[in-house]
Amino acid sequence: MTSMHTNPSSKKALRANVFPSTKPLTEADIVEMGEMDYMNDAQLAFFRSRLQEIEINLLQNAHETTVHLQESELFADPADRATLEEEQALELRTRDRESKLLKKVRSAIARIDEGDYGWCEDTGEPIGVERLLARPTATLSLEAQQRHEKRQKLFGH
Q1: Nearby residues of 111 by Cβ (< 8 Å), 6 or more positions away
Q2: Which family does it belong to (predicted)?
């Protein structure tokens, strides 16, 4: 995916600024950084770490579901069997949602590698650290996301 920024060299200049720190950054550190520090190496490392933690948790959940489904016992009582099937269906729906999230997480990590993380896919503008802290897989700025949702509501896409 290619970046839609009007001045790619300025993006590289912004990333070149490194937040001096010997300890891992906190959310507060990220929020306190100025515009010139946006998506610098320290911020990218912070978000990569956060995304990798999410990825690990999702993979562990998927493994636990697989083990749980394999270990399920068979019940002779139809009511017990129905309850088990309902629980399994719910667990599988949850894993399906998590599978979709896993794809988004891996895509976000790839955007970090490509140098596009933190930049709106529609406008090329910064997504903003507050939004990325709340939703690290975001690909659109808040304004672009709102426009996208409004179009979906109007046109049903």
Answers
A1: 1, 117, 139
A2: Belongs to the DksA family.
